[in-house]
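SAMPLE LOG
Freezer: B-3
Tube label: C17
Construct: single chain, 93 aa
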Amino acid sequence: MDALSFINSKDIAAHLKEIGYQFNTLEASWLIYQCRTASLPEKIEAWQEVIATMPDCSVERRLNCVAIESWHEFTEGKSAGDIMQTLIVALNL
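STRUCTURE (predicted):
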């Protein structure tokens, strides 16, 4: 998963590439969500790749965010709109 390609700023993407930053599953999912240049089909394909290739994670309960024990199970079978809404809630955006 090349999460760097979903970063809106070329300078930030270049810096993160230079330092070898590795995104976790939730970060990669959020980058896909917020990307201004990726089409909806591209985002759906990327989310499916995240679920298939990246480790599962949990999200702790906090203000305006429910606890999510398994990100993979939580997003599996959801529509793109549902995944976007899930990210908004999970990341408290």
